[in-house]
Design a protein that fits this description.
Layout (H helix, E strand, L loop, with lengths): L6 H16 L4 H25 L5 E8 L2 E6 L2 H24 L6 H20 L3 H19 L5 H32 L15 H18 L11 H4 L5 H9 L1 H18 L1 H4 L3 H23 L3 H21 L3 H32 L10 H4 L1 H15 L5 H15 L3 H29 L18 H19 L2 H11 L4
Antiparallel strand pairs: 1-2
Helix pairs in contact: 1-2, 1-4, 2-3, 2-4, 3-4, 3-9, 3-14, 3-19, 4-5, 4-10, 5-6, 5-10, 6-7, 7-10, 7-12, 9-10, 9-14, 10-13, 10-14, 12-13, 12-18, 13-14, 13-18, 14-16, 14-17, 14-19, 14-20, 16-18, 16-19, 17-18, 17-19
Amino acid sequence: MSALLLVPIVFPILAGALIPLLNFKERQKRTVYVITMAAINSLVIAGLCFVLPEETVFTIFRLTESMPICIQLDGMGRVFACLVAFLWPLACCYAVEYMKHEGKENTFFAYYLMTYGVTVGVSFAANLMTMYFFYEFLTLVTLPIVMHGMTKKSIYAGNKYVLYSIGGAAFAFMGMILLFVYTGTTDFKFGGIIGTVTEQQRNILLMMYLFAIFGFGVKAAIFPFHGWLPTASVAPTPVTALLHAVAVVNAGAFAIIRITYYSFGTEFLRGTWVQYVVMTAALITILYGSGMALKEQHFKRRLAYSTISNLSYMVFGASMMTAEGLVGAASHMIFHGLIKITLFYVAGAVLYKTGKNYVNDLFGYGKKMPVMFACFTLASAALVGVPPTVGFISKWNLITAAAATDVPLAWAGILVLLVSAVLTSIYLFSVVIKAYFPGPGFDAQKISQVEDPNGFMKVPMVLICVVIVLVGMYSTPVVSYLEQIAAGLI
């Protein structure tokens, strides 16, 4: 029964690898294949979440007797896996339309499906070594789709992405190995795996925690290791949407939560200097990302800087090292994924239909692309934290968690979150205002050919927007589940 855990990892990897062999000549057949494979995998994940008990562990292979590569489906893994399972088939629907004019579609969708399987591997990892294994595999499998266009800019973006990722991997590896040396395991256990240590060992482990956080945190774009993320926005929008909302960046935030709560443990870390270092880095990144998004005029890069800021909301929640902080971090990981993928999809729809890349090109688009900009407006309100959307729930969880802690820096974080919310409202609603209120003298004839894309791109966005509102209105089941995880019950 435990071997079933391997299915949603291996299935999309094999399905993706088969695409070049099948060599689809007709777009319709490839479209059916890609969406069907993604949907089947999502159904498998949903089934496993309901059927398999939480203690189920499957060992894939062993590097050594004491260092297995194994997978499980615990509470936190279910959260990330379900987010991925919900969004990936919708992303495939969007992508099959968007990629019409990008070329090399067989290659693109091969890696796109394979990325699905690897991301599930990150969420199912039963120990730090397994997560590291899939984490680095994620870098390799996403590199070709980041560089898909093979232009000078996309090649530069790919090189930068790999350079940052390899550097982060080196730091993460040092932290992982030292943790293994002092504990004899890398297993995930709620509360951490560190027992009694000497003062010297304690100091070394605290430093290794910092190495691991900033190593895995490269994908979470913690300042100053964020530079790859805006550059990667040159990739096709189906790539940037998943990179910046689900697969890569949320994998970084997920890894930080795992390391803090399941490897080193909050009892070992809370009140130490590393807690303040990580929290300070998160707060600096929140303000930096928001400020840069306000300044940036390129539509997708503005959203990329917004992602940098919001990822550190999750890091800030994790750095509180409390149950309430974990609930805030995990809820923002889920809800930001829904919101940000919608915002990127709108930016991609504009680029797809008009070729426009800059905010100042969007005057009057609200009436010409009514569905797109209705979705953008709703998602913008959610990211600001306007009730009854999901963004309000996650930000409320973070602020109340900060208010409940005894860490003064966390109280300062409340002010940072409020300032960031103001900046977010400016850099997003300025787009909305331009789209709906172009001002006197605007020549609507110049955009007479602009229109919404077809159903392949519209339907996924509308569905996600419905979820953003409904889950915001009825968030109790999700938050209650996260509270049980934070209490160590599941």
